[in-house]
Amino acid sequence: MSMEQRRQPRLRVFLKGRIHFNNGSSSIDCLVRDMSSTGARLLLSETATLPEKFDLFIPQKERTFRAQLRWRREDGIGVTFDNGAESPETAPDLTMTALLRRVGELEAENAALRRRLAQMMEAAAPAI
């Protein structure tokens, strides 16, 4: 039986996760199996080379953690969360879903401004 070396005990969970790296241009789906406030054990469906640091987004918790790779085994990887693990309240959410949502909001705002400008120009046209 091995001695527990973690500062915080990990709880068994079954959560969908997404690993983002290369400034958000690359991502891999994963399954979070154990988790604590300081780290997690992740199962990957594909064998991939991961950088030492990456972002782990967990949709069910609506949180993005800055993670550091600690160990790799055939059945998964272990990560620790940086002390300044980011949450949506304290840092921008850089997930693809959030970026696409923000682009949609900006496009809608742009369209509304264009309509307003067209109305103003139309109202000013008889005066010209």
List unreliable stretches of 5+ residues: 85-92
The strand count comes to 6
Taking the alpha carbons of the first and last residues, their distance comes to 87 Å
- Please count the helical segments: 1
Strand order of the largest sheet: 1-2-3-6-5-4
**Rg, Å, rounded:** 22 Å
Beta-strand percent range: 35-45%
Overall body shape:
elongated
**Roughly what is the average pLDDT, rounded to an integer?**
82
Order of helices and strands: EEEEEEH
What's the multimeric state? Answer: single chain
Structure class: alpha+beta
Range of helix content:
10-25%
The main β sheet shows up as: 6 strands, antiparallel, barrel
Chain-wise SSE layout:
Elements: E1 11-21, E2 26-35, E3 39-44, E4 53-58, E5 63-73, E6 76-81, H1 96-124
Brief synopsis:
This protein is 23% helix and 39% strand. The longest helix is centred in the C-terminal third of the chain and has 29 residues. It is α+β, with helices and mostly antiparallel strands and 128 residues long.
